[in-house]
Structure formats: structure tokens, C-alpha cells
Design brief:
It is built from nine helices and 17 strands. It is an alpha/beta fold. Residues 121-352 form the Metallo-beta-lactamase domain. One of its GO terms (molecular function) is N-acylphosphatidylethanolamine-specific phospholipase D activity. One of its GO terms (biological process) is N-acylethanolamine metabolic process.
Amino acid sequence: MLPPPQIEVTDPPRRFPPSSVDGVPLSHHLNDSKTLFGNPWPSFRFQSPLQWASVRGFFWCRLRFFLGRSPRIPKNIKSLIPKQTPTWGAKRGNDAKATWLGHACYFVELPTPPGAARGVRIIFDPVFSKRCSPSSWVGPARFTDAPCEVEDIPAVDAIVLSHNHYDHTDVPTLRALLANRSSSAHIFVGLNNAAYLSNALNTPLPRFHELDWWDERLLRVSLPSNGGGPAVDTEVRLSCTPSQHVSGRTALDRWHALWAAWVVDDQHSHKKLFFAGDTGYRTVRDGEDEDKVPVCPAFAEVGECFGGVDVALLPIGAYGPRAMWSNLHASPADAVRMFKDVRAKKALAMHWGTWVLTAEPVLEPPELLKKECEKAGLGEDEFLVPALGETVFF
């Protein structure tokens, strides 16, 4: 077993405006203590109390789900969503590669620097538990299996979390990843997430790095050599960028920890990746023309600030009914718009095919995505829907 690589995380010179100026917090901070946050754009509108209680709202949809009435899961669902045992793209070390592990989890390995045995490895929003819930007994259960066991995942150098909902931040999975003796991974989160996770994982707080929107960190990794020689040093820049969502692990802490998207910039190969996490793009009410409502400007800002990205990992599910969830979750049409906004060369779909979270048919997201890509004039290889366990090179 190889010893874990040495990892150093530093705060590089600031390239983007800070989250506060002269002590005055910017618009997504709702208090001075950085413990309450909001979505500051016209693209975000709150659901009304009537929406929560209506027959198409949250509570009735949840009741229909527990009664087994909505949405229906085909009995042969596991054969309808392609799945393969991950190979992690092991035979192509000079390429950047991303492996979809279900829902919003991607395992990414950046190109191998000269003389190194591998590239820097980053895993996003890993959740391998059966349920995305505070309890292992109740709550949404997987209708597709993970393509491997969490113990089969190669040692990672960084764990990046978009926000603290149970379908994106899973303590048992994180505990298993950190137990890998070949890993000395550091964990990157939005503001006000680190203390909880440090306690829950019994992991020292210095291994966690809390970032505000437009903060950055430089990850320096001493990778194992390819021939038994000295370690090979390489650097990756991690940038925390805005997204349109919400946080909360209980009924009492909603909005109290920051949510985010992330940009990864490999300083060796100059490959750039955008991970959207979980996000809305616009708020669309019943009867509104969605092409005329305001859209979240954050994604176009990312495209402008980073000059485009090589690949974008974008959510396509948990959007129905649209009037209820458009403010927090992207539809396939939204994902195509985000793809263009961030100026991605390629996009990979996520946030579908794992748990029933909302009311749209479970197989609808990739079907709608295909139609939206055709409508937008995208080529077949520009916005892909990987199989579970499939590795895509970029």
C-alpha cells in the first residue's frame, strides 16, 4: 500500500472581489456573522404557502410518494438505466476523466503529470447510502444501485461538497472515504459547514476548508512517482462560485450554511471543470413564459471569469412540478442554458436516476435533455448522459 500523498492547501492572491467590502457583507449574506445566507437575484422567488400545501405541492407530493402513487418506478428500472463496473479510465492516464457514481457524485482524475503514477483525484458530493435521509429506516430509498462499493473508490486527494442536504453530504460515505489509508484527502465546503462535519467525522478541523463565493484555494499534492523515484508535485486551483439553492439538515437550520458550485483548474494541464452541485436557474410560475423570466446571472459570470471550461457537470432532474421546484432545481432546458452560460466544451448530466425526490417520471430527465439539446443545436457528443459507473474523458 502506497503512503498517502502529502497535501498542502494555501490561500492564493485574490482574483475576484471579496464577499464583503469594508466590513459590509454582500447581498448573499443576511447577517454579519456569516451564518445566514440567501439567493440575491430576481431569478429566485420563494414558493408561496399555497404551493407547499396544494395538490401539486411538497406535502401532497410526499404523501403520494409514501402511498406508492407518484411517480411510479418501473419494475425493471435497473435494466433501463445502464450500469457498468467502474474502470476509472485507468488505461488513459494522460487524459482528464470523470466517472459518474450516481446522483450528483462524480469521481474526477486530472491528467497525470510527467513522472507521476496518476493525476490529482477529486470526488464531488459522494453519497453511497441507501437512503438520503437522517434515518436509515425512512426517507427516499435508492431505486438504482451504486455501480461499486464505496471501498472500491481509489484514494482521493480532495472531497468537494456543494451543500449539506442529505442527497449531497452523507456522513457514512465520507467516513468510509476518509478511512482509506492511502488517502489524506482535504474537504472543501461552503461557509458554516466545517464545524458540523469535523465533529460528525471525527476529523481535525484543519482538513476542512470553508469558502465563500468567489474565494479560492490552491491544492498542492505530492503525487507518487511512476518509477519509485521522488514524489511529483502538482497544483490544482479550487474556486467556490455561486449557485441558486438552499441548505439545511433539519427543520431549524435552513439557510444557515452556504451552498455553492465549484471550478477546478488544473495548473499542470490547464484543464478546467465546472461542478454545478444542486441549483436552480430561474423561477417559473404556472402560466408564465419561462423564456421571459429572469435567469440566474452566476453561470454567465463563471463563463466570463474563467474563459470557459472543458467540462461542466450539470443537474437535469428533480424539477417537477416546475412551478414548485424551478427556483431550486434545474430542468433539462435549464441545464442546456447553463452549459452555454459557462461556455463548456462538453457537459455531463447528473442529479437524476437515483432517488425519487420530486414528481417527474424517473426516466424523463434524459429524454427531455435529448430534445432540448436538439432544439439548441448541440451535437450528440456535447451533452452526455453517462451510464452508472461510466468514465468519460475530456
